[in-house]
Design brief:
- The protein has a single domain, classed as 3-Layer(aba) Sandwich (Rossmann fold).
- It has eight helices and seven strands.
- Strands 3-2-1-4-5-6-7 form a seven-stranded parallel sheet, with helices on both faces.
- Helix 1 crosses helix 8 and helix 3 runs parallel beside helix 4.
- The protein starts with 7 loop residues before the first strand and ends in a 14-residue tail after the last strand.
- The chain binds NADPH dihydro-nicotinamide-adenine-dinucleotide phosphate and 2-hydroxyethylsulfonic acid.
- NADPH dihydro-nicotinamide-adenine-dinucleotide phosphate (NDP) binds next to helix 1, helix 4 and helix 6.
Length: about 260
């Protein structure tokens, strides 16, 4: 049963990877979508395609989730135009750098903490009150296996994803007394632009991360997000850990 038709899903980080796949999936199921990311030209092209292919309404805004005032004005504009989203997918995020703590780069650390933790909080804080006032809504955070286990040189990225795990659980408690649901979908290896961003544009090194096994695709994760969003109102997946079959833990992978 499709419960998302005619609903509105806001997806942050919709210009690539998991977020883009979520946008395609929700739109294909007949949901209106709001797309946020920094690369406006990509959002524009995606919006044009989704409107043409699925006839849904697509809102898009150039938003850097780190910039609170930008989030504030995009949130106000969306609430004005379309009302509170039924589903908020907090997906925008990144890893930046791959070093031991003693060698870490302060700018990489700021980028990850400001995006993955403070950005998620900016977006949530500026939309949740309207969702609560509307008496419905579902926040789905994209966490990670790195939010449950650490691995060598994963230090600060893992810390941000452990924070997402904590925030999902805390937000779920904060929603007590409301009908709102809070969930996280926590994937293992997904082949997207993630590793290219982590390795500062080194595509060869990024491709090596996914060598010798079949990683998840953005579509696999979008399937999981859609499943979680589409459950009946009385059911909630608090946390879903989704791994490639070859991945046994955050750092144990059967490579051919
Ligand atoms: P991609 O690099 O392919 O996509 C990341 C998305 O986040 C892009 O759309 C990017 O858009 C957006 N983004 C990054 N920074 C900002 C910002 N400051 N403001 C707004 N948007 C931003 O990576 P993935 O799709 O893989 O990553 C999506 C999420 O999934 C992240 O939270 C990541 O931590 C998580 N994840 C990824 C896994 C993987 O193996 N790939 C595994 C587990 C979790 P733009 O640059 O246009 O702003
Ligand atoms: C991304 C998964 O293992 O590359 O969250 O950190 S991992």
């Amino acid at each position: 049963m499709n419960r998302m038709e005619g609903k509105l899903a806001l997806i942050t980080g919709a210009s690539a990877g998991i977020g883009e796949a979520c946008a395609r999936r929700f739109a294909a199921e007949g949901a209106d979508v709001a797309l946020w990311a920094r690369r406006a030209e990509r959002l524009e092209a995606l919006a044009e395609e989704l409107t043409r292919e699925h006839g849904v309404t697509v809102h898009r805004d150039r938003v850097d989730v780190r910039h609170r005032e930008e989030v504030r004005s995009a949130a106000a504009a969306l609430l004005d135009r379309a009302g509170p989203p039924h589903v908020l997918v907090n997906n925008a995020g990144l890893a930046s750098g791959f070093d031991r703590v003693q060698d870490g780069d302060f700018e990489d650390w700021d980028r990850m903490i400001d995006t993955n933790v403070k950005g998620l909080l900016n977006v949530t804080r500026l939309l949740l009150p309207a969702m609560i006032a509307a008496g419905r809504g579902h926040v789905i955070n994209i966490g990670s296996t790195a939010g449950h286990q650490v691995y060598p040189k994963g230090n600060v990225y893992s810390a941000t994803k452990f924070a997402v795990t904590a925030l999902t659980e805390a937000m779920n408690l904060d929603m007590a007394g409301t009908p709102l649901r809070v969930s996280s979908v926590d994937p293992g290896f997904v082949e997207t632009e993630f590793s290219e961003v982590r390795f500062h544009g080194d595509r060869e090194r990024a491709a090596g991360v996914y060598e010798g096994f079949q990683p998840l695709s953005g579509d696999d994760v979008a399937d999981a997000v859609f499943y979680v969003a589409n459950l009946p109102a009385h059911a909630n997946v608090l946390r879903m850990i989704l791994l490639p079959s070859a991945q046994r833990s955050v750092s144990v992978v059967d490579r051919r």
